[in-house]
């Protein structure tokens, strides 16, 4: 089979994607495309030489390699990624988002289901993500407030701009006005369709909010008496609309009857749960979430990582995660 000039780039890209992204063998590719194994090998070489395929090999360790390994062991996490702390919050969030995007880009696989929550660090993740293979983006929580830029919808929209992805939006508030309203919303077919994805997520991505001290976007959504109740019940962190105390136990309130979001057991069954958060004021909240056992990966700043390493280690997480095979980061 000879390659015509008009078809060469398309064929080179097709062969390269099958081999490097879909992990097909040269024999399988040859069978599907009616090519010999040796022809496939030559096309892969030509794809590299022409620049269609660009391979980056990272030989150097992270600046914080030792700290990352120590903290991952300390908190029983599969992976910790540490970036430089920065006095400018917006710059720091951008660094966190860039590091998280690089990690997601290396572990994501074709046809993955990726759950997205909300948070100011997630928009930088979306901005820094390289084009992804075909995936499904699923909103993990209802919308907080009326600002679309703070919602999972905006995060998903930015990722979808340069990726072959399908988006499943949860067109509902995070907390409905009443229990009856929440029940009605949960019965909506479009909401049930999104909920159906929560039991088979491959990756979940969220920020973490702090309640002691207050560093959370949820506070402005609650009446003072609700915030006071959360304080009295010892809430330390919020994650995907859920509340947890300093020991990593879920704190239940009347808000849970009005909440439209994923449940802790569904988070625990997700293969990779990545939290992206920095700032010393969030240290206690991050420690609380580590104690839950729900997280697999934490992307944070150097000063927070050092403080976490000085806190109590995780020995018995609140939730037991099913055994998942750790995904190796690919040289995307």
Automatic annotation (TrEMBL):
Domain Sugar-binding: 65-310
GO MF term list: carbohydrate binding; DNA binding
Signal peptide range: none
Keyword Transferase: no
InterPro entries assigned: NagB/RpiA_transferase-like, SorC_transcr_regulators, Sugar-bd_dom_put, WH-like_DNA-bd_sf
Alphabetized Pfam families for the sequence: Sugar-bind
Keyword Transcription recorded: yes
Protein name stated in the entry: Sugar-binding domain-containing protein
UniProt source species: Scrofimicrobium appendicitidis
Taxonomy of the source species: Bacteria, Bacillati, Actinomycetota, Actinomycetes, Actinomycetales
